[in-house]
Amino acid sequence: MKASQMFAPTLREVPAEAEIVSHQLLMRSGMLRKTASGVYTYMPLAWRTMKKIMDIIREEMDAAGCQELMLPIVHPAELWQQSGRWQVYGDELWRLKDRHGRDFCLGPTHEEVITDLVSGDVKSYKQLPLRLYQIQNKYRDERRPRFGLMRGREFIMKDMYSFDRDEEGLDESYRLMHQAYTNIFTRCGLDFRPVAADSGAIGGDTSQEFMVLAESGEAGIIYCSSCTYAASTEIAAAYLDKTPSQEIPEDLEEVYTPDCKTMEALTAFLGVPLEKTLKTLCYMADEKFVMVLLRGDRMVNEIKVKNRIGCLELNMAGDEEIRQHLGSPAGYLGPVGVKNIRIIVDQEVPYLANLVGGANKDQYHLRNVNPGRDFPIDDVADVRLVEAGELCPQCQQELAFARGIEAGQIFKLGTKYSESMGAKYLDDNGKEQLMVMGCYGIGVGRTMAAAIEQNHDQDGIVWPLAIAPYHVVVVPVSDKDPDQMAAAEKLYQELTRARVEAVLDDRKERPGVKFKDADLIGYPFRVTIGPKALAEGKGEVKLRSVGKVEMVALDEIVPLILEKMKKHM
C-alpha cells in the first residue's frame, strides 16, 4: 500500500470526547470516526485489524468443530416474548415497529433466534452436538455510550451457541470453547485472565469472562497468585471463617446516639470498631421491601443481592419507603423487632456477637445485638464485595485486585432457552428430551481496543504483530531524492513478494511527520532509507515494541524482518 493513497487522516490533537487511551489513539491514528453517540465507522486501517481478529476467531472456532452461519439482525418480538426476555432485557433492547405495527427489535444477542432455528430442524440425538457461530453487528441502546469501542450502541461480536444432548455434552462444549478462547486471545498477543463471572441477562448458572488486564478496564478482578482462583468483583468470594464468636452474648441495650446517621459517626461516638457494628441496607426489589445485613466494615454487592432475590429491578429504598415499612429515618435502621420483611443476612454475620445496630428509632441504636437471638438468620447468603487482602476461598492465601476489560464471555445456559422455546430432540430410546445449551461471545472491536489499552506508549499504538494493520512501513527521508525513492520502492516490492504486509510512505511530507505517523499508527517495523545509510548500502530498521534501531544491509532487511516476525507471530 502506498501511503499517498491510504485513507488514514491522522490527528495531532486528542479529541475532546475521547476519555481513554484506546479511544484517543484510534481517533488520532485515523482508524475510527464517530457517526453518532456509540456508533463508529471503522476506517481502513482499523478494519484490517478487525479482519485479522475475526480470522483468528474463525480459525479457532472451525478447529473446535463449530460451523459459521449468519442470523438476522432484525428479530420478531414473538421470539423474545416466548423466551420471556422482551420485558426482562430492559431499555437496552432496541425496539422498533414495521409498517404494519408489528413489534421487532435489533439483536443485542441471538439466543432466541438460534434456538428457534435449531428447534425447527434438529429432531434426533444423532444430530447433536451442534455448535453454530456467527460474526455480526449487535445493537444495544446503552444509556451512556462511552470509551469508544468499549461501550457502544452498535458493535461487532462473535457469538457461538452449542446444543448438546445432556450436561456432560455441555461440559465438553464449554471446555472446547474455554480452550479456543485461550488460543484466540493468546494469538492476539494479549495478557488476559479467565475469571468466574455473573451471567447477567443472558442467564445460566456458570459463566467465565476473559479479561484483558488493563488499568483503564471498567471491570474489577479478584484473583489469587498462589492458585487458579479468579473472579469478577461481581461474584468474587473470600474464605469464610466459620469459627463461632467466643464472646458471651450480653443483654440488649438501647443507647442514645444523636446525629449518628453514618457508620463513621456512630463508631466515633460509641468508641467501637467498625467491624463490631451491623450495617443495615434497605432496597426495593420489584416493589418489595427487603433488608440486607452486613458486618459494618463491609460493602454490599448489589449483583449478589439481586441474584439472591431473583428480581428484575433492585433500587435503594427512599426515605418515604423506609418510614412506611420501619417507621424510622435512614441511619438508625436495624433488624431487631422487624416483622413481615425479608431480611437477607450476609454469611459472615451469623458468626458475630454483641454488635451495635440501629434501633429503628430516631437518634437511637442498640448495643449487644446478637444474630439468631435478636433477629432471625433464616435467609443467609454471600452478598458482599470482596476486597484485596482477604483470603482466597480455595487456598486461604491473600487475594489481589486488578482491573480488566471484558473481551469475551462463555456461559452454560442449560435448558433456560430450550425449555421456553421448545428445543427438544428424541433420544436413542425415542424419548423426547430438552437440548442443553451454551453461549459464547467475543467483542471484536473491544478486543482491538483492549489490545491498544495494553500496548501503547507516549507516541502511539504498539500493535501485537498478529493483529497489526500492516507489518512494516518503509520511509524514504526525502521524496525529492530519486535514489532514496528507488531504494525504498525496491524494498517495498521485495517485502510484498515475501508476503510481508508493507506500506511505502511516499507522501510529500517532512521526515518528522512520517516518523510521528509511523509511531502513532503503530507499525511493528519501520525501515528508514536516508542519505547517509543509503551511501553505505544500508537501511535503518526499528522494532516499534522495543524502540531498538539497527543498521542493516539493504539485501538483508527482508530476511531479518521475516526472522523477527517468525519469533513474534
TrEMBL record:
Pfam families, A to Z: HGTP_anticodon (PF03129), tRNA-synt_2b (PF00587), tRNA_edit (PF04073)
Catalyses which reaction(s): tRNA(Pro) + L-proline + ATP = L-prolyl-tRNA(Pro) + AMP + diphosphate
CDD domains, per the entry: ProRS-INS (cd04334), ProRS_anticodon_short (cd00861), ProRS_core_prok (cd00779)
Superkingdom as given in the UniProt entry: Bacteria
E.C. no: 6.1.1.15
Keyword Nucleotide-binding in record: yes
Keywords for this protein: Aminoacyl-tRNA synthetase, ATP-binding, Cytoplasm, Ligase, Nucleotide-binding, Protein biosynthesis
Compartments (UniProt record): Cytoplasm
GO MF terms, alphabetically ordered: proline-tRNA ligase activity
Alphabetized PROSITE patterns for the sequence: AA_TRNA_LIGASE_II
Regions annotated as coiled coil: none
Keyword Cell membrane found: no
Every Aminoacyl-transfer RNA synthetases class-II family profile domain range: 38-464
Cited InterPro entries: aa-tRNA-synt_IIb (IPR002314), aa-tRNA-synth_II (IPR006195), aa-tRNA-synth_II/BPL/LPL (IPR045864), Anticodon-bd (IPR004154), Anticodon-bd_dom_sf (IPR036621), Pro-tRNA-ligase_IIa (IPR002316), Pro-tRNA-synth_IIa_bac-type (IPR004500), Pro-tRNA-Synthase_IIa_type1 (IPR023717)
Subunit record text: Homodimer.
Function according to Swiss-Prot or TrEMBL: Catalyzes the attachment of proline to tRNA(Pro) in a two-step reaction: proline is first activated by ATP to form Pro-AMP and then transferred to the acceptor end of tRNA(Pro). As ProRS can inadvertently accommodate and process non-cognate amino acids such as alanine and cysteine, to avoid such errors it has two additional distinct editing activities against alanine. One activity is designated as 'pretransfer' editing and involves the tRNA(Pro)-independent hydrolysis of activated Ala-AMP.
HAMAP family: Pro_tRNA_synth_type1
Annotated NCBIfam families: PRK09194.1, proS_fam_II
PANTHER family noted in UniProt: MITOCHONDRIAL RIBOSOME PROTEIN L39/PROLYL-TRNA LIGASE FAMILY MEMBER, PROLINE--TRNA LIGASE
Comment on protein domains: Consists of three domains: the N-terminal catalytic domain, the editing domain and the C-terminal anticodon-binding domain.
Family: Belongs to the class-II aminoacyl-tRNA synthetase family. ProS type 1 subfamily.
Protein name per Swiss-Prot or TrEMBL: Proline--tRNA ligase
Organism whose genome encodes this protein: Dehalobacterium formicoaceticum
